[in-house]
Amino acid sequence: MDLNVLAGAIMIAFGALAAGIGNGILFSRYLEGIARQPEARGTLFGQGMITLGLVEALPIISIAFGLLVLFDIIG
């Protein structure tokens, strides 16, 4: 088995796993904040969407590099 295939698959898998865990933590804290202080819902929503973009950036980059390694474009 070629190590590029294994490395690419691991990068893609960890990228997807990181996105799932990050989104779960983000939205659990978002709902907890709304439960504690309902009048701050708008502010929390805006901050949550900014944080969602930051959380999603790293897995997307990881998946892109994983695909590059998987198809032997780099490495």
Could you give the topology of this structure?
Blueprint: H1 3-36, H2 41-70
Helix pairs in contact: 1-2
Provide an overview of this structure:
By secondary structure, this protein is an all-alpha fold. It has one domain (3-70): F1F0 ATP synthase subunit C (F1FO ATP Synthase), CATH 1.20.20.10. Helix content is 85%, strand content 0%. The chain contains two helices and no strands. It has helices spanning 3-36, 41-70. Helix 1 runs antiparallel to helix 2. The longest helix has 34 residues, at 3-36. The mean pLDDT is 90. InterPro entries: ATP_synth_csu_bac/chlpt (IPR005953), ATP_synth_F0_csu (IPR000454), ATP_synth_F0_csu_DDCD_BS (IPR020537), ATP_synth_F0_csu_sf (IPR038662), ATPase_proteolipid_c-like_dom (IPR002379), F/V-ATP_Csub_sf (IPR035921). Its main location: membrane. It is found in: Cell membrane. The record marks 56 as: Reversibly protonated during proton transport. Keywords: ATP synthesis, Cell membrane, CF(0), Hydrogen ion transport, Ion transport, Lipid-binding, Membrane, Transmembrane, Transmembrane helix, Transport.
Quick synopsis:
Helix content is 85%, strand content 0%. The protein is mostly helical and 75 residues long.
